[in-house]
Amino acid sequence: MSVIAGCSLFNGVILLADCRVTIKRFGKPDVLCDNAQKLFPLTNTTAVGFVGDLNAASQIIRELFRQITFSYKRGKTNGLHSLSISKWLPRYFRFYYRQLSKKQSVSRIDFMVGSVILDRQNIIERSKVVEIMERFRLGKLSIQRNWIPNILVNILKANNSHIILSDVPANLLYYMQSPDFIPQHLVPLEFAAIGSGQDTIIEIDRNADWIFAGDVGNSFMEASAFRQTVSSFIEKKFNLVGRWYVSSHKNS
Q1: What does the mean pLDDT of the chain come to?
Q2: What domains are there in the chain, each with its CATH number?
Q3: Environment class of residue 45 by beta-carbon count within 10 Å: exposed (0-12), middle (13-18) or buried (19+)?
Q4: What is the pLDDT of residue 233?
């Protein structure tokens, strides 16, 4: 079982990954290890996670870090802006994946990337907030409570279909699948999961009101709600209890 899950919040993005790898042994039982890191911070505003071919992914990411480190040393940091990364990273994955495929057998690899854009403002679709508020109105909350976050009320009062949060940096959340690595982008208040545990989106959707609007802006509470939601689903479906790695990017 392997999963990377991500959600785009009002204020930032959260990526979550399991830490399990399966080591195949010829003629012997598989060995399960819960110490693999599948999420990596590329810069102070961008993180990437992967599922799939561990050997190939490690080579791709190792070379990626080498190039990023080289850029820092040369003072060429323009390409490390979150928007710039979103443009060249798919091309890099596609190129390096094809190069590896010529040298060795390579299986499927999926990547998920989460970023914040510090010099842009986050934009929320009013319809997304309406969906959350409907759960309050119909009493279909994952955790019952008698209060509503101010941000929901303020957005609903606006007449525009898209509301700019002037004091919040813009979010970027997208995932890519081999061999073409075409980015699939998500907007704020959307979520996704990749890997064999991707059905966890069922549980994320069920708890969306608590993850997105439980304690808006509280990184610890948002990450805890997200992690508990995913781990609960994985435990039920796969009968697995493992370690989790969480990366949260906001306005720092």
Answers
A1: 90
A2: 4-118+170-249 (3.60.20.10)
A3: buried
A4: 85
